[in-house]
Amino acid sequence: MDEILLDRDAGVLTLTFNRLAKKNALTPSMYAAMADALVQAAADATLAVVVIQGHETVFSAGNDIGDFLQRTATTGESPAFQFLRAISTFAKPLVAAVCGPAVGIGTTMLFHCDLVYAGDNAAFSMPFVNLGLCPEAASSYLAPQLMGHGRAAEALLLGEPFLAETALEMGLVSRIVAPMEVAALAQRQARKLAAKPMRSLMETKRLMKSAQAAVVAQRMTEEGQSFARLLLEPAAREAFTAFLERRRPDWQSAAKLDS
To answer: How much is the pTM?
Structure first.
């Protein structure tokens, strides 16, 4: 079964996370499939909009923790980084339909979407520090810009989750509806966009994002370098092992290994 489902209709490409048994945790092959789909959609004159969605009960649990443990290194050419580059530079409108948990990259990818529709069961979190890591997707820049420093500190330093109402208040989410209605709403809005002049859509999006484009690209590169380094350090390895063993991380032991 394909873990990323692709559907084309009426100028809209819909990407659906299809790994429900693992709470739509993302793997390298899923990142690669999404990156390829975005690159192809950018060059396809018959496609005007891309929708990203999960399931009514869960958007994405973030990166697969088992994949983190198996990885010995990560680079700017990793599938995850290729996906982040593709979504952050995508010139056409991006719409997201989010229900249930959106963890880590499940939240940070939304900073690059133009319209985000959420179910009233949506819960967002960026627990990178709790995994011995640092933010990605330029979220260390975009989160404070959108949320303000205080709320971004709670989300990024403490790793505290926030619900759909808070996300709506901050502007991360465009509208909240019942989970059963989110996908249909996202499709309706996407089709409204697809019916408009594509050049006007793309130029308007470019003008809206041009002031921060260079900063976002630079921050993503900087975050990627830090993320790659932290991924191999004892704190992260302990966090991943503890997660899989369903126990609390032993940070003191990790600190001794790091000394």
So the answer is: 0.95
